[in-house]
Design a protein that fits this description.
- A hairpin with a 2-residue loop joins strand 11 and strand 12.
- The strands form 3 sheets. Strands 2, 3, 4, 5, 10, 14, 15, 16 and 17 form a 9-stranded mixed β-sheet that branches. Strands 1, 6, 7, 8 and 9 form a 5-stranded antiparallel β-sheet that branches. A 3-stranded antiparallel β-sheet has the order 12-11-13.
- It has one domain: Rossmann fold, CATH 3.40.50.
- It is of the alpha/beta class.
- The longest helix has 16 residues.
- About 7% of the residues have low confidence.
- The N and C termini lie far apart (53 Å).
């Protein structure tokens, strides 16, 4: 049975489904979802690539920032990093390799955990990080889908959230051990609801084709629009990201002491009020934007820009101190400028190698590349504000 047939069957058995459920099945179906089907969609030859695909300097700079965070926390004997949606593990490998080489004291305290749902990607992670897994420096954290559903149900999480609750991510270390949560291009891939003046989107089917229908928006959707977004005008659609907000709430609650870094493309409510970032839902296939999320289920990426206003509010409600939003350029420039980005050029032996790396670095930090389209949300808990302010990643844009 194809994924399209699975979705049609669910609609016929239970009626039209929320768009979030459709998006969940397209991306995360265990056998045929986009992130489960294969791992070849990552990288420049696939449908999209992340900052870690550009150059190892992205992971090296974050390793430097993680080391700073560990020192700000008082250089504890143990610290845990939890990476959400690690993909093929390139970022984790760069962080672990560079930390081992440049920050040995931090590396000896570090336990790196990777939260990944896709079985295909978990296999790739085992291969990419084989040495660090064998040494006990890195490990996977992912409970079974059944266990996640049981835990979600016990905590009152609705059907649309069951596969996305971090409640299944038990910590390997004691709760009082400081924790750094890192999420790079993670929140944009969580399912969203779509709202228009007609109501909340539902996906029905007719003769095997998907068609759009509308129902009155839920009270949660209306509250989300009132607090963190805008109500759509005629001809407009906007997204509500309750799953992402729920995720951020639970993650922030799980941090007793530590930091959270979320890097993604997105917007603030102020930008929406100014008329931007309405209807940000996009599909991608082979680096090309596609207009129709209903074609080729499971074979194209579906994303929505991140509402950083909503994420920041969820973190603050759980006691996190959220820093002003920064662009990826500001964040990386702050980390790399003190040593003139030596992390990028250390392996270069020839002038042409330096030139190539300089172009890759430019892509990460300039407006023409990823530098201005991506933003960095940094939050802390139980850390003195003056200590947080000393982090190099916060030195730009303050």
């Amino acid at each position: 049975m194809s994924l399209r047939e699975k979705i049609v069957q669910e609609i016929r058995e239970g009626g039209p489904i929320p768009f979030s459920r459709y998006m969940e099945m397209c991306l995360y179906d265990r056998e045929q979802g986009y992130y489960s089907r294969n791992v070849e969609q990552f990288g420049k030859a696939g449908d999209f690539y992340t900052s870690s695909d550009v150059h190892a300097v992205f992971g090296r700079l974050l390793a430097r920032q993680f080391d700073e965070m560990w020192r700000v926390l008082g250089s504890p004997p143990q610290i845990e990093i939890l990476e959400l949606g690690p993909g093929r593990g390139l970022f984790a490998r760069d962080v672990l390799d560079w930390s081992e080489k440049k920050f040995p004291e931090f590396f000896s305290a570090l336990r790196y955990r990777l939260a990944e749902r896709s079985s295909a990607l978990r296999e790739r992670l085992q291969a990419t990080l084989e040495r660090h897994f064998a040494a006990g420096n890195a490990s996977l954290v992912m409970s079974s889908v059944a266990a996640e559903r049981q835990k979600s149900a016990a905590h009152g999480v609705s059907r649309g959230l069951e596969g996305f609750s971090p409640l299944g991510f038990e910590r390997i270390l004691a709760p009082e051990v400081p924790l750094i949560v890192f999420a790079n291009e993670f929140f944009d891939a969580l399912p969203v609801e779509v709202i228009s003046p007609q109501g909340q989107l539902r996906i029905a089917e007719k003769d095997g084709r998907f068609i759009e229908t509308w129902v009155p928006p839920s009270s949660d959707d209306l509250e989300y629009l009132d607090r963190y977004s805008v109500h759509p005008e005629d001809g407009e659609r906007v997204e509500t990201a309750g799953i992402a907000q729920n995720y951020m709430t639970q993650l922030s609650a799980s941090i007793q002491r530590g930091f959270l870094i979320a890097i993604d493309y997105g917007y603030t409510r102020a930008e929406q009020l100014a008329g931007r970032h309405r209807d940000t839902l996009m599909t991608y296939r082979q680096h090309s934007a596609r207009p129709n999320p209903y074609e080729a289920p499971g074979e194209q990426d579906i994303t929505a820009h991140v509402n950083f206003t909503a994420l920041a509010a969820a973190a603050e409600q759980q006691g996190m101190q959220v820093q002003p939003l920064r662009t990826q350029s500001q964040f990386l420039m702050g980390i790399g400028e003190p040593n003139q980005f030596a992390d990028a050029f250390e392996d270069c032996r020839l002038p042409q190698e330096r030139a190539k790396v300089a172009l890759q670095l430019k892509h990460l930090v300039t407006p023409a590349g990823l530098g201005e389209s991506f933003h960095s949300l940094i939050a802390s808990k139980a850390v003195a504000p003056d200590r947080v302010a000393s982090l190099s990643g916060l030195s730009f844009g303050s």
